[in-house]
Amino acid sequence: MFASGRKASSINGQNARMRTRSASIQSDRSLVNGDPGLTVEAGTKMNMNAHSEPGIENANYFRPYVIVILLAVFALSGCGSDEPGLTERGVSTAYDASGTKLGSVRFDNSCIDDAQPLLVRGLALLHHMTYEEAREAFSSAAEIDSGCAIAYWGSAMTYVHPLWPDTILSDSQIAGQALLDQARNATHSSTREVAYIDTLEAYYRTEGAERDRLAAFLDGWTRIRDAYPNDVEGELFYALALMATASASDKTYALQREAGAIAEAVKAEIPDHPGAHHYISTS
User: Are residues 66 and 199 in the same domain?
Assistant: First the structure.
């Protein structure tokens, strides 16, 4: 009786081991590299060698997905800016129509690449206060990219001479406002460029003396400086507005000193920036 019981027990143990092995093989068939959809033939071993580390199969399995995600990130980062529509252009050297170097600027904008040389030329000429030539450059940029908002803004800026003793003429005011209307309707734009347009339009729409227009001009560039602290050109136009609104009776020259400090900081970053040089000497 005892022998028969031991035999039955032995048979039951063998059956249990067979069931365990069968379950193990079934597990191998239903789970490879963490994916229930992948199988291996019964009895084969997973691809692990003596140099494998725990989890390496999972890493290999997910690698194609990681590559796809990285490619998507790089594609999205192609715009070069966190602002929708705006492209960070980096420092660009500007040249006039004859090829003479005008200095370097950093003009982030939404316009097409073919328009960039003319846009940076127009901006550099604005800082040089060579307004008619700047208008030609911006107008040519708009011919290349008719949806370029900042090109129309630049042309409108050429009618404003903050450091000159003149005041804007009525014909120029009409022409400038028409350009700003085009800028607002342009398809290649961004939130920052709209802020540029708003600031200039505040100047155009302010009634009264030139000092009142320039005060509105300063208010706009102050808001841009607060909103976009890394915008070099916004910093310099803010410095320009400071100098334009400084009171001759203020012998502390506080605004001029602030403008000069801004220009010095930009000059340290972009040594040949025309605005930095002009506003340092003027302040």
Answer: no
Q: Are residues 211 and 130 in the same domain?
A: yes
Angle at 120 between CA 118 and CA 124, to 5 degrees: 115
Same domain, 118 and 214: yes
Q: Which residues touch 244 (CB under 8 Å, ≥6 apart)? A: 162, 163, 214, 217, 218
Provide the residue type at 5 as one letter: G
104-150 pLDDT tens trace:
999 999 999 999 999 999 999 999 999 999 999 999 999 999 999 99
Q: Does residue 170 sit in the same domain as residue 102?
A: yes
Supply the pTM of this predicted model. 0.72
Does residue 43 register a pLDDT over 90?
Answer: no
Q: Which two tokens stand for residue 114?
A: 């073919």
* DSSP secondary structure of 147-178: TBHHHHHHHHHTT--TTSS----HHHHHHHHH
| 65, pLDDT greater than 60 | no
Q: Total domain count for the chain?
A: 2
Return d(Cα 256, Cα 237) in angstroms, integer: 13
Q: Do residues 149 and 110 touch, judged by C-beta distance below 8 A?
A: yes
Q: Quick one: 227 and 97 in the same domain?
A: yes
Calculated CA dihedral for residues 193, 214, 268, 121, nearest 10 degrees? 50
pLDDT of residue 63: 52
Q: Answer whether 238's CB lies under 8 Å from 278's CB.
A: no
Tell me the three state secondary structure of residue 146: coil
The answer to whether the CB of 140 falls within 8 A of the CB of 151 is no
The pLDDT of residue 38 is above 50:
no
**What does the pLDDT look like over 247-263, one tens digit per residue?**
999 999 999 999 999 99
- Comparing 82 with 61, the larger pLDDT belongs to 82
